[in-house]
Amino acid sequence: MSLICLKNLSRRYQMGEETIHALRDVSLEIERGEYVAIMGPSGSGKSTLMNLLGCLDTPTSGTYELNGTNVSEMDDNELAEVRNREIGFVFQTFNLLPRSNALRNVELPLIYSGMTFDERRRVALEALTAVGLADRVTHKPNELSGGQRQRVAIARALVNTPSIILADEPTGNLDSKTGDEIMTLFEDLSRKGNTVFVVTHEEEVALHARRIIRIRDGLIASDEAVKH
Amino acid sequence: MNFLSELKEGLAIAWDAILANKMRSVLTTLGIVIGIVTVTLMGTALDAMNRAFHQSISIIGADTLFVQRGSWLAHTEAEWLGFLKRREITWLQAREVEKQMTLARGVAPVVVMFQSVGYQSRNARGVQIIGSTDQFLVTSGFSVGQGRFMTEMESEGGRPVCVIGMDVATNLFLNEDPIGKRIRIGSRPLEVIGVLAKQGSFMGMKSLDNEVIIPIRQLLGGYWRNPDFQIQVKVSEINRIEDAKEELQGIMRKIRRLAPGDPDDFAINQQEHLISMFNRVAGIIATVGLLITGLSLFVGGIGIMNIMFVSVAERTREIGVRKAIGAKRRTILIQFLIEAASICMIGGLVGLAITYLMVLAVGRFMPVPVSLSIPVMGVAILVSLFTGLASGFFPAWRAARMDPVEALRNE
Fold first, then answer.
1. Where is average pLDDT lowest: A182-196, B43-57, B317-331?
2. Which one-letter DSSP state was computed for residue A135?
3. Furthest C-alpha separation in chain A
4. Cα separation of A33 and A17, whole Å?
5. Which residue in B64, B120, B325, B406 has the most C-beta neighbors within 10 A?
């Protein structure tokens, strides 16, 4: 069975009198270990799709099965648990907590999952070491470079060993060299068996993935494998 | 995530947030500090008033009954004027009660008047002159500090002797030994045979040591022929006080010749009446006082609520991130509640410290002992905690219900 199974997924928003169809009847299957890029111009519905995949939002109609459970009709608290367990987010603006150091930022998901102090310290240090920041654990976000910040964010996304890693324009705020480094990191993660989604509008970034899904007007315009 | 670790995490975050906005935290806390200071000061004042009253009233003794024309529990002026129209309690009636009471350890007729008292060239005005018998020592609970009280012989014979209060002794005699000296009450000379032990003051205001006790016959013969008497009855056993009251009432009705259907035209008063009257008044003062001071705490609470709304709005994105990472509604709610409660608790503790110092400073100039009591401190801490939780609830609730997508989009 697939890791992710979307069936006729739709999301509509009500803006005053007008109904906006952000996503129309999207069906999609993603296998474990895939490396997928989601592309599309702004307003195409790719953010909506990402929010649904990340269980931040629920569909208006259709079903979403993640790892065998139907998450499309869960309430707020159940979704929070699923996000904590199954999904690692990487954001364009890093979204680290500014007053907490790298270690505490990475520990955060573990605090919410209820891990004991010693255990989570160990796991968080491992995650930071894995992204090459073992010597930066006590630094606060404003003491780190953009690339380092994004690595902390990736460590935070990985630390709960989620089923999928969802990166929303992960290189958008980085120069091209650091951007490349981050993309290499994602490739590594993918090679180690993680399922990775990268949402982007840059062709170059998307080409790192092995499957590109293009969204236009709330529909899947194309879905093809990348030949390397 | 269990509740305890949620609390711990919440505390850490709250501390971070408070430190990150030091100035704002200080200003917000100020409202609570002022609120807690006013409330605890009020509480301490009420406390001191209560304590002073009960200390003063305990001199009377719970086992003494006071037969008078009027009741201590007069509610209105009309009622009070009604008491004054009743027949006076006479010397003969007082003597009758003395003879007939069986459940009493002592019965003393008492008449009180005010006179100036003199010794050589010194004078004291407005001294309380108490005319009574040797039994007065039993019924009043006074004790003699120096010399002796009058004997039954002196009392029955109406001898020109007197026992003076501590204030009278120091005012008239300075450092001289008063025993055996003659003082003038009005124009008549009386010999001092004893000085009462110091009793202090009633609620720190009216001195209880400014009196002279003389034999009642001396008073009747020399000063006031037909006064209105008060009869003090010391009950033989405190647990038979109700029986004694009944007996006393029967005797009084008989000697005042009341027909079976007539209402009493006298009152039997006891300490409890004073206490219940005091409690009624004190209750009103406490309610009004705490209400007014509570208002300042309320204003402080609104300040906290205001600043918590700002804090939530400022940290919308952080809330979004926390939710994306797996924080549940409850977790966010608790986080902000703890933040509000922490600010209030800090304010409460600072307020308590200030109150403590103020009480310490003011206490030196107060006639009655004043101190910050443990219950008042406990209540202050609980109140500040409650204020924090109450004023933090709406902002925290708003934060907890935020949609993660919206929150993350916030710049």
1. B43-57
2. G
3. 55
4. 42
5. B325
Angle between helices B374-400 and B329-363 (to 10 degrees): 150
User: Does the pLDDT at position B202 exceed 70?
Assistant: no
Q: Tell me the average pLDDT of chain B.
A: 88
Beta strand segments in B137-266, E: 144-147, 161-164, 182-185, 188-196, 201-202, 206-207, 211-215, 230-235
Q: Mean pLDDT, to the nearest integer, of B254-264?
A: 89
pLDDT at B357: 92
Report how far residue B105's alpha carbon sits from residue B241's, in angstroms, rounded to the nearest whole number. Answer: 12
Which residue spans within B24-171 are E strands per DSSP? 64-68, 104-119, 122-132, 144-147, 161-164
DSSP letter at A144 equals: S
Chain B contact present for A113, CB below 8 A? yes
Nearest Cβ partner for B326 among A57, A84, A97: A84
Chain B hits for A114, CB-CB cut-off 8 Å, are: 1-2, 5
What is the residue extent of each domain of chain B?
3-56+281-409, 87-265
Residue A89 near chain B (CB below 8 Å): yes
The tokens for B317 are 């994105």
Tell whether the torsion through CA atoms of B62, B65, B110 and B265 is positive or negative. Answer: positive
pLDDT of B400 reads 95
Chain B touched by A201 (CB under 8 Å): no
B152-191 residues touching A, CB cutoff 8 A: none
Strands B104-119 and B267-270: unpaired
* B325 Cβ under 8 Å from any chain A Cβ: yes
| Number of Cβ pairs < 8 A linking chain A and chain B | 64
Q: A56 and B324 in contact by Cβ < 8 A?
A: yes
Residue A132 predicted with pLDDT over 70: yes
| 3-class secondary-structure state, position A115 | coil
Grouping H, G, I as helix, E, B as strand and the rest as coil, residue A207 is coil
Torsion angle, CA of A206/A212/A218/A220, rounded to 10 degrees?
A: 160
- What phi and psi, each to the nearest 5 degrees, are found at residue B273? -65, -45
What's this model's pTM, rounded to 2 decimal places? 0.74
Rounded to an integer, what distance in angstroms lies between the CA atom of residue A108 and that of residue B325? 8
Query: Mean per-residue pLDDT for B324-348?
Result: 92
Is the reported ipTM for this assembly greater than 0.90?
A: yes
Structural domains in chain A, CATH included, are 33-58+76-225 (3.40.50.300)
Question: Least CB-CB distance to A51: which of B317, B329, B405?
Answer: B405
Q: What is the DSSP letter of A92?
A: T
Chain B contact present for A45, CB below 8 A: no
Substitution target from B325, B334, B339, B410 for chain A, most A beta carbons within 10 A? B325
A54 in B contact zone (CB under 8 Å): yes
